[in-house]
Structure prediction request, 852 residues.
Amino acid sequence: MNLRIKFTKKGYLKYISHLDTMRLFQRAFRRGNIPIKYSQGFNPQPKMSIANPLALGIESEEEFMDIELLKKISEQEFIEIINNQLPDGIKILDAKYVNDDKSLPSTVRWSYYEINVKTKNMMDKNLLEEKINEWLNKKEIMFERRRYKKGKEIKDVKNIRPLIGNISLVKDNKNINDDAKYIIRIRCLLKSGDNGSLKPTDFLEALDSYLSLNMEIEMADIKRLNIFTEVDGKIQSPM
Amino acid sequence: MINRISFDRVLKKVEKPARYIGMEKNSIKKDLSKVDIKFAFAFPDVYEVGMSHLGLHILYNLLNNEDYIACERVFAPWIDMEEEMKREGIPLFTLENKEPINNFDFLGFTLQYEMSYTNIINMLDLGNVPIFSKDRKEEDPLVIAGGPCAYNPEPIADFIDFFVIGEGEEVVLEIMKIYREFKLKGYKRDEFLKEVSKIEGVYVPKFYEVYYKEDNTIERMEPEIDGIPRVINKRIIKDIDNSYYPDKIIVPFIETVHDRIPLEIFRGCTRGCRFCQAGMIYRPVREKKVETLLELAEKLVNNTGYADISLTSLSSCDYSQLQFLISKLINKYGEKQIGVSLPSLRLDSFSIDILKEIEKVRKTGLTFAPEAGSQRLRDVINKGVTEKDLETAVTYAFEEGWSTIKLYFMIGLPTETEEDLLGIRDLGYKVKNIFFNFPKDKRKGNLKITLSASCFVPKPFTPFQWVGQNSLEEFNEKINLLRNEIRDRKITFNYHDPKLSYLEAVLARGDRRLSKVIARAWELGCKFDGWSEIFDYNKWMKAFKETGICADFYALRERKYDEVLPWDFINIGVDKSFLYSEYKKATKGIPTKDCREGCNNCGINRSFIGGVC
Prediction:
């Protein structure tokens, strides 16, 4: 019995890691007496998988997780029991039994983010939009990614253009914030999952090297709005 | 409340931001404007360490059970957090309401280890509370402290308004009631302090004067005002089975040192190991009933969702109905994948039977503590395990598929010789031989033996409280000897930093003149001294030099029996003469029997319980 659940991760709860989130759910399931299936073997683990790990510090409007149950309980009952056990910020929005033979994480392809980032420089909104389109129209966007493996820094230069789906600039009046710095709001569709992925912060770094707005990337407010899978070339929600 | 925008900025920059957010399951957030008393429970170390401390969970829930009290938690911010908080102008705050700690009525520090003393000062300073008790005004919080290190409160006497000696469950509520009355009728700091100093177990250092002899030892300690006790009796909970225990505890988001249900099965210990302070100060042994524990376990499992129940105490294998309790728990929770664990295992055959039982659910790591390398020295410290016990235990462990064994030792114990030290090596090799004496097809896994040595620190209220600690040179010689002697791919030798143990010895047996040194060390930047990567020995030595205080006087000096010790005014119920006779027996290598085999006349039954233990 595979139950797929949709949940949020907002507010201060964005500061707990992927592993912390897994642990939090395991304990909530145990408190709620949810009949979860355990793996066999030396160190039995509850059968659950989160669609796509969210980096520390990023909020989310919709995350997905599959859990295997030993016996069926009604979706509504499940939501009520578990929401009672969850902290403010993490909330189950929906739950549905699914018969997918593919694991949830392996089907994830895209994440849709909203990013609010402060910048030291600013340009006219129309010009900004034009520049972003110009950037997206390039065949290749080369970006040097830094990763750490066994404490050693590994750099590789990669074309990230195929990892970017689309970008839209949210135009509203909030382009100046209280401490007199500029702020821009962007929505973007970025690759996520096993077939390549782009971190929102890497995306911002690449974008800013083109726009030269001098973004405060470390301080950006990033929120995942949606996760999409791709089935037979069609982009769709996991639920 | 602190500025949320600044706080959010800070959280984005620091490592493990979840240390500072609160909001965990079973945490309690009250409206602070609607309670009479705001109590900040302060743990002078990082969140992960503090949240693993049972006393915090007990007192947090006990205080919050009272409608008129709000108890919130505060921990030492890690170095990176401290820097960011200072940059943003955020004062130290509690996790629940994010309220600056100087808005609380009480700041209650728990003293779990001496090396956290500079963190106390640092936390006061970060919270804009004057670090010295004498500088605090009417509106400042009352800074109080309890826990095992409060049994020698003197080194931090200048910073703490009053100490609570012994078990806190009852006395803390007595204090709260008096404070509430004072608040209603008009609170005056000094009048309140005079009032609480009459409560059994409460010690207000500023009401006492210490007089010294020419040789720097203490001549006497005098109460400076009338009506306060000359001797402070520790508090104990007589009826542990009916005393308060939380049925829900906070479940942290992040991994802590102990991520499990702590089920306290008894207090005290009957073994009488001569180096062990806990074994003396927590006397007498008081057990909880199996029914009580099963009831609590049920509630705690349902309220936390933890997958492990840890049966905690000083020596859990000594619980009179351990096997019965464990089989009950396993029968009940095994199916739900909830395991049972014991914090420490003795090396005897009984423990091995228990291990077999526990193992049905989950395998735990195997650690044994022979403490000393030779039988002679184990008799000196009254650690009643034999080499045969170790052999039986590891043989069983290897049969059952374990291949990683850790053995804990102390070096620098009184009367220790080179032969005793080499006994540590020999035990390591013995364990190795046992493994390889198994036929090849019966050996499981890759053998790894860790021999871990800590440097002995003599503690107050133990038979070794008069002993001079080994000097750094002696410790280093001993460590080098073992490092050279233990050369085997299968055996790792670890040791603790002798400098840290030296300072711990100074602070553990210090008097109130040390407050100056601690304050100076903090000014020089010392904090998190228990963290070897941060501990700065040179700064501490500078602090001693600048304040003109000799550290060796406290750590290395052998005391005479008639010397007035800084903690002599505290009565733990165990007679000083008993401790001394144990010391004399130790030097002759004469063991003392376990209390359960007959009374050894330590005094606790006369002074505290008025009967048989």
Residues 418-436 of chain B form the longest helix (19 residues). Residues 4-233 of chain B form a domain with the Rossmann fold fold (CATH 3.40.50.280). Chain B touches chain A through 27 residues (CB under 8 Å).
